[in-house]
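Re: weekly structure request thread

Next one in the queue (263 aa):
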Amino acid sequence: MDAAALETTLRRTAPAVAYVMPELHNPTGATMSVSTRQLLLSVAASVGTTVVADETMGELRIDGAPSLPLAAADPSGASVVMIGSADKVFWGGLRIGWIRAAPALLQRLLAARPTGDLGTPVLDQLVARELVPRTAAVLEARREYLRQGRDDVVGALRARLPEWDVPSPAGGLTTWVGLGRPVSSALVLAARSEGVVLASGGVFGPDGGFERFLRVPFTMAPADRGRLVDVLERAWARVGGESAGVRGRSPRWCEQSWGHPLG
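Done, posted below.
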């Protein structure tokens, strides 16, 4: 993260809320440094900005120790809201989340919620209640699965497409691949013609600003990892780094938070 740009933006605009993903950012996989965290909280407090920190990827660290929560750098605890979710750890369809914040702010949120949200499905809440106490055991298996998936996909992409910049992220669900040319959308269309659906880099920034990047998941079953790389290699050859005019057909599997095959 560009700390100087962050500070300038906050001071110039004084937003009511700043949304950040400090741990294993999606899609880049980056983790915010301690100094940037401290700067963010200091400047946000000075301009009256509440910082919303998304922790949903934080538990999916594969390598190294996780950082302290952003709220740990805020002595007062009044200017940071931490949000988490069960879907990344347990299952992508379990859309249950939670908020950690100062009690006064939580009361305000609870009072405001009914105007736009009638409530969370009861069954989903009951499922989450059973799963959360088992988080440690689930994460142990989940991290090993993700580590193998990451190593397989990253290794294959580096070997088959050496002109790409393929980082090996410290965790999360995807790798943020540098293509070297602004052809991400064309590459995604070419892959879709073979039944593989991915999100182009352009959808992650305003005005297609990340067309030189591609978010590649490594969460799929082992048999699909090789197929993913095969399709990307052929799609890259068809695109030629410039353009593609392929027609898509119904996908056989799509990227999602778990990357499982879809019917």
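Residues 149 and 223 are 11 Å apart (CA to CA). Strands lie at 17-20, 50-54, 80-85, 97-100, 174-178, 196-197, 213-217, 253-254.
Next request, please.
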